[in-house]
Specification:
The protein is α/β, with parallel strands linked by helices. The protein contains eight helices and 13 strands. Helix 1 crosses helix 7, helix 3 packs across helix 4 and helix 6 packs across helix 8.
Length: 314
């Protein structure tokens, strides 16, 4: 396998997990970064380094030259628990993505993969969702983020390129910062429920996200948007109650995280994609919902109770 893959945003947590997997699978990887001198980890993995910025179309064209696949993982988000300007990330998605798409077209890149977020399906309450489930956009920071995501995806989907969009759940696991922030707040007695804690959250371990991305590149379900998340969504109160119960302990491996939910009433709900959701589930077996891509379940939140599947629903 000798295809050359360009990864924009290669130094972020998603890229740091994806790059070594791509290289181990035999792809020739070019990491597009703003400061190559600060991308030692990408270079150590065996990636070629090239200077490029999502707002600099000329640098993107140069960095993309000779690549068959381009992956856009670029974001501008504050670390968990920190104040930040989310509008910058919205701007990157709205204005930067069309620049990326044009640069790919002009550089002759045949395929593009765009990172997106499952939160674009939020707003349905307890109802199940799939890739075609969208609700009116609310006001506020979350609503602005969803509007920017939909504009970003439209820029990709309306292009004449062969595209793939992966809508990830909320990342957790090494390097994401959420683990450390949640457990630190729990130990300090400062862990608080959002509102009543009844809302669902769809999570995905960062290693599973990277593995699912590699599987998608290998199979390439052309011109589709797919959601990557753990087997079922959980209510915030279940997630944070578990974290609080471990406040005096060091953070255990996240593959045991799902044990806290085995007895939860939500686990008795019929299987299916959940709010914000699950269109891909992590497993080695095909399921009843349609096409699938074999993956893994070792990190899935509830894999110990209910092995899932990576499936394409609908």
């Amino acid at each position: 396998m000798n295809a050359r893959v360009a990864v924009l945003g290669a130094t972020g947590v998603y890229g740091r997990h994806l790059l070594p997997r791509l290289i181990a699978a035999g792809y020739r990887v070019r990491a597009l970064v703003r400061k190559p001198q600060s991308a030692a980890l990408a270079g150590a993995c065996g990636a070629e380094l090239a200077a490029a910025d999502i707002f600099d179309e000329a640098s993107l064209r140069a960095g993309l030259a000779g690549c068959e696949i381009a992956i856009n993982l670029a974001t501008s988000l504050p670390a968990p628990g920190e104040q930040g300007d989310y509008a910058k990330n919205d701007q990157l998605r709205r204005e930067g993505t069309p620049i990326f798409v044009r640069a790919c077209r002009d550089a002759g890149v045949a395929r593009i993969l765009q990172q997106s977020i499952a939160m674009t399906h939020a707003g349905g309450g307890d109802a199940w969702a799939d890739e075609q489930t969208f609700h009116p956009i609310a006001e506020g920071i979350a609503g602005a983020a969803i509007a920017a995501v939909r504009a970003m995806e439209a820029a990709v989907m309306e292009s004449d390129l062969d595209w793939l969009v992966l809508r990830g759940g909320l990342f957790y696991g090494p390097g994401t910062g959420f683990d450390d922030d949640w457990f630190a707040r729990a130990r300090a007695g400062k862990l608080r429920l959002p509102a009543e804690g009844d809302d669902y959250v769809s999570l995905v371990h960062i290693a599973d996200m990277a593995d699912a991305t590699l599987a998608a590149i290998r199979r390439w379900p052309s011109r589709q948007a797919l959601i990557v998340a753990d087997d079922n969504p959980a209510r915030w109160r279940d997630v944070l109650t578990y974290l609080f119960s471990r406040r005096q302990q060091s953070a255990a491996p996240w593959r045991t995280f799902g044990d806290a939910f085995v007895q939860s009433e939500e686990r008795t709900r019929p299987p299916g994609p959940g709010v914000g959701a699950v269109l891909w589930r992590l497993s080695r077996r095909p399921g009843p919902l349609g096409r699938y891509i074999p993956g893994i379940g070792r990190h899935s939140m509830i894999s110990t109770a209910s092995p899932g599947k990576i499936v394409k629903c609908g």
